[in-house]
Amino acid sequence: MYEYWNYYDVTPRMVPADWESTVTIRPRFTHAKFPPADRIKVRVIPLDDGVREGGPEPLRGWELDADGALRIRANFTGEQEYNLTLELTEPGNREADEWALRARETLRFNVYSLRADFYERRPFKGDFHMHSWCSDGREAPEYVAARNREEGFDFIAVTDHHRYAPSLQAIRVWCELPTDLKLFPGEEVHSPDNPVHIINFGGSFSVNELARSGEERYRREVAAIAETLGTEVRDRFAVAASEWVFDRIREGGGLAVFCHPYWQTEAYVINEGITTAILNRRRFDALELIGGFYKHQWRSNNFQIARYGEERAGGNAFPVVGLSDSHGTDTGALFGWYYTVVLAKSDRLEDLVEAVRNGFCCAVEHVEGGIPRVFGEFRMVKYISFLLESYFPRHKALCRTEGALMSEALAGSNRAVEALKMLAGSVAAYRESCFR
């Protein structure tokens, strides 16, 4: 459904469930102006819970303001998506009427009514598995950050193999230049003799460095964990080492992500016994459900999705995220293909971590040239699917402008720096306008 997202401002996009609210639709350009009120028919249509027999219609009234904005009052019952449908009727004299070419056109705008636990949260698009040239990526960490903003991300962490410092480098550079992109510390953890890859998102210290600099302690503590594992656990060292890493990440206030269990080279990088034990014991915070795989590696993500479904069916539910594992933002692959939408109370680290740990997130796959697919708890999937169509297009357009200026600022443009200062807060203002 084409919604003319660039032609109109729709505020709010999200409304409280079971309240009467007023939604304002304001044309942004002259070619989007509404015809006179007597040529507009307004309908408010709930997608999930239609008007019950004998029940009241959702529409309470509407008016066309002198400034050309359409205001629609409706009772938005339940948590669901609503179509606001505008039917433009036939003019009396087509030849003399400036609206003749738009006769009988139908415009549709969508809003979502939310229960309180969702309404108090805001949507943030993030990726926290990516690499710079400080490991096996292609670009400087600060450039990776700029390109991610251009792609529409609200928050990221650069997570190089074995290295925590590159994420701090990106933070340091952008602390001195104006941007609303949130950058956090991170690393991909490879603890000694452990084949399991784990993301440390937001932790206050490097777990890689802790394991390397204190390897004797690491091995002693891993051995102690291994002693507690049941006899059914294969590869006890790898499972125990992974749990040691998960615990250290949480000690630093970070999010511990179990990465790509079905990654395949000549064989699976970790065997089924390790995967099963880690999933069953649930010491991680989130599973990287999708991400990191090129089109010819489609089976790996498929297997992870199928395994996630089986685990949930068996009562083992856990949060899932989508992460790109990008090794270059200009390579034409992986970058922007996989990401996470988080519903959090703010974009502060502690709120993002809380949201993911408590399952207020979905993994999104949007491989170039394909259609988006959203994975997670069903209620969340429905809402985030709406956001992908009705909220994120304008959001991405705003981020794209800021990201392009960030790249120019890195290249030395003082004009870009000044323009960034003028744009500061634009994305946040848009976000809040969608709720107020």
From TrEMBL:
GO molecular function: 5'-3' DNA exonuclease activity; 5'-3' RNA exonuclease activity
Domain Polymerase/histidinol phosphatase N-terminal: 126-193
Membrane-spanning segments: none
Name this polypeptide is given: Putative metal-dependent phosphoesterase TrpH
